[in-house]
Structures are given as C-alpha cells and as structure tokens.
Amino acid sequence: MDVQIRQAGQARRMIRPVAAPLMAGVILLALSGCLGGPQVSRSADSPADPVTGEGGPGHMNARGEVVSPLIDQLRLRQSVLPKGGSFATVGDAVLSQGRASAEAELRVKRLAARARSKNWLPKLGPDVNLTSLSSIAASLVMDQAIFDRGRRAAERDFAAADVEVAAVSLVADLNKRVYDGLKLYIEAQRAAELAGITEAALTQMAEFERITRIRVEGGLSDGSEYRIVSQRRAEIESTLSSYREGGISARTELAALAGSSFDGLEGISVLPPDSGAPEPLSVLITKGEAARTMAEVAVARSGLLPGIGAGASVAKDGDLSGGLSLDGDILGFGRADSLKALEESEEVARRKVDEARRDSDRRIVALGREIASLAAREQTDGAVIAQMEANISLYTDQYKAGRRSLIELTGQFETLTSMKRDHASLKYQIAVARLEIALMRGVLVDGGSM
Known about the structure:
Elements: H1 2-35, E1 59-60, E2 66-67, H2 69-76, H3 86-96, H4 101-116, E3 123-132, E4 135-147, H5 151-217, H6 223-258, H7 281-303, E5 307-315, E6 320-327, H8 335-400, H9 406-441
Antiparallel strand pairs: 1-2, 3-4, 4-5, 5-6
C-alpha cells in the first residue's frame, strides 16, 4: 500500500513539470485568440491584426504573403519595344544573360516579411538567472502583447513596404540593364552609319588629292594646293578610324553584356511617343520608402504610448506564474517633442514623394521637348543637305570650267560631309531620348517576365 502511494506521488511530480508549460501556452494562446488571429482585421492599436484592406499600401495576408497593388501594377506593365524588332532582340538577350542581384534581394525581403507576419503569436524563450554562486534558476517564459498601440501591425507594414521597395528596385535594375544594352547597340549602329558616310567622303577626297598631285607634277599648280587637299584627306581618314574604333568598342561591350555579338543585326526600332503612363519608377520607389518610413514612425510612436502585455513563466520545478505588464515611455521627459518629431518625419516622407514626382515629370517634359527639337532639326537639315548637294554639282561644273578652284570645291565637299554626319546622328539621339523616357517609366521589360 505504501509503495503504491509513493509511485502515485512520483507520477504526479513527473507530470507537473510537463503539464505546466503546456498550461501556460494554452493560456497565452487563448489570450491571443480572444484578441483575434491574423485572419481578423481590427483597429490599428491591436497587435493581433495584420494590415488589411483592398488597394492602397501593401499588406500581408493570413499566409504571410505580401498583397500589394503596386506589385500587381508592375506585373501588368508592357514593354514598348516592338516585337520582333532589333531592340526586342537585344533586350531579350540582355535579360537572358545572368540574373540580377536585386532578384535575390527581393527573395530575402519576402522571406523576412513572411517571418514578420507571425509576430502576433506569443514569444517563447528560456530565462536563466544566476541566483547565487552555486545555483542557477531556469524558467520558460511566454509573452503576449494585448494592447501595443499598433506596434506589431506597423512592423508587418514595414516588412510589406520593404518587399515593395525591393520589387520596384528589381524592375528598375532589369530596365536599366536593357537600357544599357540598347544604348550600346544604338551607338554601334550610329558609328557604323557615320563610318559609311565618312568612308565615301574619303574615297572622293582621295580622288581630289590625286588630281592635285597630277596638277603639281604637270606644273599647273604649286605644292600649296596639294598640301591643303592632302591634309583634308588625312583628317577625314582619322575621323573614319575613330568611328570604326567606337563601333568596335560598343559592339564588344554589348557582346559582354548580352552574350551575343549581333553581327547580322541592323537598324533601330522606332519607339512610340510617351503616353504619360505608367508612373515613373523613381516615384514608386519613393512611395515605398515613404510607406516604410510611416511604419517606422508608427513603431516608434507605439513605444511612446502606454501598452499592455501578458506574461507567464514556468520554473524548473513546475511552478506557474503570470501577470499583466504596462510598458511605454509614459512619463518620459521630452515625450511631446518626440511625438512631434515623428509627425514631422511623416510630412518629410510625403514631401519626398511630391519632389520625386516633380523631378521625374520635369525630366520627361525636357526629354519630350528635346525629341521634338531633334525631329524638327532632322527635317530642316534634310532640306539643307539636298540644297548643298545641288551646290556641289554646281561647284564641280564651275571647277571644270575654270571658275572655281579645287580648294573651294573640297571645302564645300567637307562641309557637306559634316552636315550628313550630323543629320544621320539625329535619329539615334531621338532613339536614346525615347529610351530614357521608357527607362524612367519602367516599360523596357514586360512585367510578366519578371
């Protein structure tokens, strides 16, 4: 009989240390359940509510995934590069070559946000204290915030905004890579066309040099005329060499960036005029950073306001204790100024968004005016070149009749060649300006492919 009583007592002592932590967990989970789990939307002061709502800033759903209208808009963006054109070919090659570091950063932010979505659950951890030089008191502690002035909700908001900023950064990074590749391709095409114009001019100038040499050898002219024409031919030859070197350099850089030389690819695609949409990426990034700042301010503000928490601890011997706690900088000196500073931080974030919008709008308007000016100049210069070519024919006839010198003829020819090169460069300058607008709006890459 005594043996049975002792065994029963030992069993109760063995059960108690195991059951007590479970009881503490059940109590705190019941508290969090009374406040509402992550599926329930509550006031901003409740720590147990994830931020919900349709539209507006991003938030996290019950599964810890970021629901963001901004990211949805990024996915819907369509590239303005004409399908099947040279620009689309180069852009696809650039995107397929390697992966962006911003992509890995976005994955990190999404994982961090998923972890942050569980912050409404109680915290569980050990508590070890040195009670004396020879003994250690250990316990298992669980804490649950009941009323934290929206701190944990703000932490989730911060994580969601962090994901949005990383997503926009990824889009900006991929668009910049495509822009860099296309700009190199445009430079290579421009160098090739200007080299062709210069090479034709060099052939003609070499013929003029041959004529002056014959005149000098026949005693019809002194060496001064020959030296002038020869110098002009050498200048054209040097210009041709620089264009060829520039084309080779651009193609080499493009091959390193895209993994292809594009030897058989020629011509440039015509991009559509700016439609005024979508919103520039710089504005979206600033909006995400502002949302992140707002969340930081909310976290800091919650620390200055009173909050209530519940805690329970289980000692090594199975004793269960618990209670409520009041936290927050309620009586702290400078609390009013701190709250005012937080309000000013929110205003600064809003102003940064407005500044980013004004700066991007101003730049896009400037690029639009530049495109219009270049297009008008392209049309005007075309008419001037046609007139100059007619003048060259007249100068040639007058030279043959002895009324013009060869120096005058070569001078007119050199001016015409320079005009042709400037005129040919205009369409490439227009293409680069339109590319920059597309880069700012983030429409060089399809959103679905990202």
